Amino acid sequence: MLTDRIEVLIDRVSCFAYKLCIDGRPSIPSPKRKYNTFEVYDSVNGDEYEFIGFENVEYGIQFNYLEDVTDNGTFKNQFRRIKRWLLNAARLEFSDEQDVFYIVKKVEIGDAENDIVEYGSFEVKFTLAPFGRLIENAPLSYDKTAADLEIYFDNPSIIESPPVIVLYGSGDATIYLNSVPIKFTGIDGNITMDSDLQLTYKTDDGLHINQSDKQSSNGYLNLLSGDNHLIVKGPGITKVEVWRNSLV
């Protein structure tokens, strides 16, 4: 049940575990576009701009700590534990946005106010990847026979997103994602095209084994925002999984 008491989770650990709450309701960040600017002289249309990507997002959160001294000691003692938790952050989530997480790139912890022994207040500035990611508890999964598999699916991403596509089975295969082909040779059990990490690998007992030599192209494909079309060819392929990694 959602309430006005927002819970911040760092790497799936709640701020409540450290006796922290946040001050107010943080603003919602939006990524800003980055452009190269080309000055055009004697032009009635003004300068020209070339879109080159998105800026990281700066996100500030004010944390408050208040706890019985007999339970957890002074704030100064607890602050050391809190700093270790925050400075190692890789993933940020909020309880009022349970289907999204943010990738943390940098953490800066401000000076803490400590007017009384059991109270502390401080700001943390997170540098986040430009977009949040929709949490997928399971991939899109499709069984395949010896015949070609053709599927259509929606990607709720705001922009193109880097999927992870897993083929199960053996032999050679070709995928066509929105008409762009990539071939795989000598598949043995499974092969993963990870556009997010820009890697191709096989998973064996939890280990990732490099399989880039079995992929015909070093390019990695992105999903479109909205409708996508995937064709999988290869008689030895038995199942296909698609993790969309939708960006929001």
Give your account of this protein's structure.
The protein has about 250 residues and is mainly beta. The protein has two domains: about 10-135, Elongation Factor Tu (Ef-tu), domain 3; about 140-245, Jelly Rolls. It has two helices and 18 strands. Strands 1, 2, 3, 6, 7, 8, 9 and 10 form an eight-stranded antiparallel beta sheet that branches. Strands 11, 12, 13, 14, 15, 16, 17 and 18 form an eight-stranded antiparallel beta sheet that branches. A two-stranded antiparallel ribbon has the order 4-5. The longest helix is centred in the first third of the chain and has 13 residues, at about 75-85.
Summarize, please.
The protein has 248 residues and is mainly β. The chain contains 2 helices and 18 strands. The protein has 2 domains: 8-134, Elongation Factor Tu (Ef-tu), domain 3 (Beta Barrel), CATH 2.40.30.200; 140-243, Jelly Rolls (Sandwich), CATH 2.60.120.
Determine the mean pLDDT: 92
Q: Count structural domains.
A: 2
Q: Biggest sheet, open or closed, and with what strands and sense?
A: 8 strands, antiparallel
What count of helical segments does DSSP give?
2
What's the CATH first level of the largest domain? Mainly Beta
Class inferred from helices and paired strands: mainly beta
**Uncertain spans:** none
Shape estimate: globular
